Amino acid sequence: MNQIPIKEEIQTKDELTKKEEKNIVFNKKAIKLILLLLAFGIITGLILSAIFVDETNQRIDEMAEMYMPIPPYEDFNPEHLTISDIILPSLGVIIICISIYFLIGLILVYIKIFLKTSSKYIVGLLFFLSPLLIQSIISVNTLRSLFVSSAIPYMHIRESIGFGFGGLGGIIVMVSIFEIIGLSILLYLSTE
């Protein structure tokens, strides 16, 4: 009689081991998905940043031609953007692109879950994620406009809309960083 409970215990431990192995597989799947979306976001962000820098340099050239010769009292520097001018805006675009890809990934995961379960809760999550995706796309366009902020002639305006501490660009990027953290946790838990 003592052997029967031992066999049941062994079977229970084997079942637990199989369940743990399944959890590990799902966790690996979630991590792979997050890393893939992260890579797509970085690549897309770098491509968009390069496009935005080119557009900004063209705008600076147009402004320089329009206002030549520049009066000595103006604080306008008609030079192209330098590496230090584009680091923070490019980082912001990359971060928001990562957020966009995480949102797309979550939407696709929830569509897959909805097709299996037809749950109203999942529909609610889809309606919640869709405006966040639209907001992130609008944020990329906002950062596109802020790339030219380093060429704005007046220092106080440049600081308030640029990427410095408290500037509009900096605030958008900070919000997006917290959004990425929350979305990555939600994506990880949703793929289990």
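That was protein one. Protein two is written in the same sequence-then-structure order:
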Amino acid sequence: MLNRNQSQWSKSSLWKVLSALAVAAVVVLSKELGILSTSTLLVVQYIGIYAIAVLGINMVNGYLGVFSLAHAGFMAIGAYTSAVLTKFVFQSEWMFPVAILAGGVAAMLLGILVAIPSFKTRGDYLAIITLGFTLIVQSVLQNMQAVGASKGLNNIPRHTNVYWVLGCLLFAIFIVSRFVHSKYGRSLKAIRQDQVASMLVSVDVRLNKSIAFAVSAFLIGIAGALVGHLLGYTSPSAYGFTNIVDGLVMVYLGGMGSIAGSIFGAAVWQVLVQLLKDLGTWRWVVGGSLLCIIMILRPKGLFGYMEIGDLLSWIKAKLQPRKLQKGDSKHE
């Protein structure tokens, strides 16, 4: 059984890594040949960064199955931690990976703290607690003069480029794929389906929830570090309700508990944001409406707990009975 699981993980992970590498190679080649314009390249970087964030959000909201609103706070921690390091501590661009890692680790440590309330609370109560965490982080940053208070941090070194974004995205895909197919990933699936039954079969619920929140916060913190060094500016106002809604739309648009769905949701939403930018603040009305429609028509999202191969098999299974019915009627 163990060898079978390992072989399944190897095959699925190999296809995911190869697919991601192929897409990354196309993007890099297009950039080097000058095919992509500056604005298009910026959108591609946004897609990659937010795909990393959505992979992190999906770790808790999808694979674990709890409703958390802490992702904006984690992103803020990652952005500010890395920005402070590159602006005041590390003067060399070669230290940028250390700043990214520090942003992820700082968010991860807070993620472990946020996991503690999830031991005894669920549903709406946990959502309120995690929302409170995000608002606390935003309020602290707004009143901390050392990091610019409400004005934010300016003149952050713009170290982020398409190579860093694609490299971090490949790293995030590897981490999530490896985690989901490990014993911890199987434990998260058991907890999502029935937490009480999981405890009865000796699944350490507290440990697995803590690990899930830690990995989630780590990836979201990396995304925050990248976006801060892409724009060269960060402020507390960027990590409020708008950021929360953005994250939820991308997760539930692409699909819960899906790596392919996370990337798809980030890509579609970032393209829509660029297409609707002329609407101004009304584009957020479109985002909220889209989230409502998705939750009504397909609550788990397009790729809900499926990857590309699973989705194709599902579509084939849905179409097959119709073909049989046509064949039967023709035979008659």
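The two ends are 46 Å apart (CA to CA). Keep this in mind for the problem set.
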